[in-house]
């Protein structure tokens, strides 16, 4: 009887898992989504008030947020933020906008706060509840490990702003990260109908060269094996391109060595001297991206991009750091004034809103032509509305249905 029961249970389990794992056909059904950035990992430019309210200029990321405040104070602010910044109502609005996916950044400290590290945890139950909300509203989730021990890029969005990222320098950091990937794959094994993609690491600093890239390649291969161990027919494994050109990844994790792997590439024209392009040049460059994307061997999802064409949003380059656009960023040369380029949508001119709409279309049209999906950064911001999908809907530069284009000929048509 015992063996009969377990056989029966095993059969039922297999049936229910295989039904669930078939939920989202990546590569065949197009992804239109938004990042839920600044929710379970703080980013100063998304919620400047949380940082300014501390009254402490040294608080520039989630690490220092916990380090330089009384723990009870920091925890109560974080808890209130987790409870209110994103709720089920956001999932409902996202689905109504014709989107089918959310990418949710989360830091390693939600899973395993390290000894002697100041981080405050408590994010994980929110991620778990988000799977319920996603199911209720027909949305898919990419769980995106946005912060790894030691920081994989030194950006404040990794939890820790550092001039020199440390993740790759110490195998113990990588081992801890792999253990978290196992935890994620295990925790969400029953939720594959919504948690249909896992991204083992966001934005590793591949531009630092081979010392980083060799660690990233090995980590990606290991993560793939660890995820498939837990989920044999499970989540898509989404690999950030580590800022490398398509040819760098040629043949990497392609079938038959790996199945259901896709590349995440991030598309911005503002974090270097490209910020100096005219509006027409930005739009044209977006239209021309098809030729790059089509060179990837793997499916490509543009996991971050924005209709913003300046870096004017306050704290975008870090709290207390200026913008390249107006020359207030160290070493930059002014292109123009940030006046009117960031803030709330009610302060934007009609011309500016028209440009945001055109640039949004140039990018989505290009992505729809040459990739398997796009995920805008980000759904919501306190004040930098040029980045906010929700504000774009409200003020009209983003169409009410995500598959619609107001300027279908912006890239010349086909
Ligand atoms: C998750 O959802 C349950 C059921 O609605 C609720 O009781 C619980 O407080 C939620 N957890 C968090 C962390 O919000």
TrEMBL record:
SUPFAM superfamilies named in the record: (Trans)glycosidases
Protein origin, superkingdom: Eukaryota
Record-linked InterPro entries: GH, Glyco_hydro_5, Glycosyl_hydrolase_5
Keyword Repeat on entry: no
Alphabetized UniProt keyword annotations: Glycosidase, Hydrolase, Signal
Signal peptide bounds: 1-23
Pfam families: Cellulase (PF00150)
Domain Glycoside hydrolase family per the UniProt entry, residue ranges: 72-306
Single annotated GO MF: beta-glucosidase activity
Family designation: Belongs to the glycosyl hydrolase 5 (cellulase A) family.
Name of the protein described by the UniProt record: Glycoside hydrolase family 5 domain-containing protein
Species the sequence originates in: Trametes cubensis
Lineage, highest ranks first: Eukaryota, Fungi, Dikarya, Basidiomycota, Agaricomycotina
């Amino acid at each position: 009887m015992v063996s009969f029961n377990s056989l029966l249970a095993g059969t039922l389990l297999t049936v229910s898992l295989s039904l669930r794992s078939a939920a989202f056909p990546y590569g065949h059904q197009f992804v239109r989504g938004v990042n839920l950035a600044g929710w379970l990992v703080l980013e100063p430019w998304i919620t400047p008030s949380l940082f300014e309210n501390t009254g402490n200029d040294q608080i520039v990321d989630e690490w220092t947020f916990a380090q330089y405040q009384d723990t009870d104070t920091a925890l109560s602010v974080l808890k209130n933020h987790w409870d209110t910044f994103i709720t089920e109502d956001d999932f409902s609005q996202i689905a109504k906008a014709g989107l089918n996916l959310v990418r949710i950044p989360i830091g390693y400290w939600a899973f395993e706060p390290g000894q002697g590290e100041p981080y405050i945890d408590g994010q994980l139950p929110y991620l778990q509840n988000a799977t319920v909300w996603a199911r209720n509203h027909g949305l898919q989730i990419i769980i995106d490990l946005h912060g790894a021990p030691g920081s994989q890029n030194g950006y404040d969005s990794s939890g820790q702003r550092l001039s020199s990222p440390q993740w790759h320098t110490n195998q113990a950091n990588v081992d801890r990260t792999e253990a978290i990937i196992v935890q994620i794959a295990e925790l969400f094994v029953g939720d594959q109908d919504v948690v249909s993609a896992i991204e083992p690491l966001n934005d590793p600093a591949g531009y630092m060269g081979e010392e980083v890239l060799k660690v990233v390649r090995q980590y990606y291969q290991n993560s793939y094996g660890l995820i498939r161990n837990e989920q044999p027919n499970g989540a898509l494994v989404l690999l950030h391109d580590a800022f490398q050109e398509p040819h760098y990844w040629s043949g990497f994790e392609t079938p038959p060595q790996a199945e259901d792997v896709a590349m995440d590439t991030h598309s911005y024209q503002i974090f270097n001297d490209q910020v100096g392009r005219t509006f027409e040049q930005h739009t044209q460059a977006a239209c021309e991206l098809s030729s790059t994307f089509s060179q990837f061997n793997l499916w490509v999802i543009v996991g971050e991009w924005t209709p913003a064409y300046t870096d004017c949003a306050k704290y975008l380059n870090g709290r207390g750091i200026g913008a390249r656009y107006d020359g207030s960023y160290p070493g930059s040369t002014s292109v123009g004034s940030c006046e009117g380029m960031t803030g709330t949508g009610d302060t934007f001119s009609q011309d500016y809103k028209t440009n945001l709409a055109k640039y949004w279309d140039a990018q989505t049209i290009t992505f729809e032509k040459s990739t398997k999906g796009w995920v805008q950064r980000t759904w919501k911001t306190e004040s930098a509305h040029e980045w906010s999908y929700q504000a774009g809907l409200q003020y009209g530069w983003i169409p009410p249905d995500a598959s619609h284009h107001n300027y279908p000929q912006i890239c010349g048509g086909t």
